[in-house]
Design goal:
Helices cover 37% and strands 19% of the residues. The radius of gyration is 20 Å and the shape is elongated.
Length: 325
């Protein structure tokens, strides 16, 4: 735990101590996939005085380096490589990267950026006191899927069958499926669940939605990162099938998806700097509470809405969404 005197040090004072070079391992999306997130991560570090080339070295490893970006052997190999580079802390962006970090990082502190359900997945003992050597942020609030369904039905009130695209219906996604079923039943619509574990399964999933006569689509914000990195492809498939869809991030809407109601991805990457700073000052990762998203943003792609023949209702416009032309 931090002594009270240490807590009074101004942000960046420790980071700027002469001669000390900190090393951070980063296992997350590349600049090619998400340049704005990598930029936010660096800005979050800089806010606490950690600047690459001055007092910080970041060892970058990418979670989207191949078709099967969630391959466990590749992830663990990346983590072991970071350990070999003697990093002071490891930042892991998605569930498979967090799993690999827990298996291969030893005692090196781990900061999660986008965990789906860290307690259910066994990453942490609790949100308030995670224990072990891990802390960070969740991105997914399971109950959010019900809110997504509500927002989608405001846009498409006549929908009677709604598809739910998930990475897998087991594990952390199971709670999402359960809550989505309950929400669909409460609103009198039928839920059709389809899975896709890699891009080669997208066509099969959308064929199943077509056979099931889905009127609209929920794309679950899973911890795998697959639907984020493949956001352009999914948006194209949904538009080709004329499926009004709601996604798990604003980035999906920028890529051509119809709409999203979600936490801010940028906010989590900016916030990472605060967690890293606490750890480098001496706090134990397991003593730092895991943070859940508290603010959410609505985004609507007007071009996609027009292509689908949809008029954005006043009930959504009154929420002052981010409108993407």
């Amino acid at each position: 735990m931090l002594a009270s005197g240490t807590a009074m040090i101004a942000p960046g004072a420790l980071a700027q101590a002469p001669g000390r070079i900190w090393r951070v391992g980063y296992l997350g999306p590349s600049a090619e996939t998400a340049p704005h997130l990598l930029k936010a991560f660096r800005e979050g570090l800089a806010a606490f005085g950690y600047v690459e080339g001055r007092n910080l070295v970041v060892e970058y490893r990418w979670t989207n380096s191949g078709v099967d970006m969630t391959d466990e052997k590749t992830m663990i190999a990346n983590i072991r490589d970071l350990v070999a580079h003697k990093v002071d802390v490891i930042v892991a962006s998605i569930d498979p990267a967090i799993v690999a970090a827990r298996k291969g990082a030893g005692s090196i502190p781990i900061v999660m950026l986008n965990a789906s359900d860290p307690v259910e997945l066994g990453f942490a003992d609790s949100l308030a006191r995670p224990g072990r050597n891990i802390t960070g942020m969740t991105r997914i609030v399971p109950e959010l899927i019900g809110k997504n369904l509500q927002v989608l039905l405001e846009m498409v009130p006549k929908a009677r069958t709604v598809g739910l695209l998930v990475y897998t219906s087991t594990g952390a996604d199971h709670s999402i499926v359960t809550i989505a079923r309950q929400a669909a039943q409460a609103r009198g619509v039928t839920l059709q669940v389809v899975e896709a574990r890699d891009p080669t399964e997208f066509a099969t999933a959308f064929d199943a939605l077509k056979r099931g006569r889905a009127d609209a689509l929920l794309v679950a914000n899973t911890g795998s990162g697959l639907f984020f990195t493949q956001r352009v492809k999914i948006a194209e498939l949904a538009l080709a099938q004329r499926l009004p869809s709601i996604f798990g991030s604003t980035e999906n809407v920028v890529a051509g998806g119809l709409m999203s109601y979600s936490p801010s991805s940028v906010a989590n990457y900016l916030r990472a700097g605060a967690f890293i700073d606490k750890i480098l000052r001496g706090a134990k990762a397991g003593d730092i509470p895991i943070e859940q998203p508290t603010t959410f943003e609505l985004a609507i792609n007007l071009k996609t809405a027009k292509a689908l023949g949809l008029v954005v209702p006043k009930s959504l416009l009154m929420r002052e969404p981010q409108l993407i032309e």
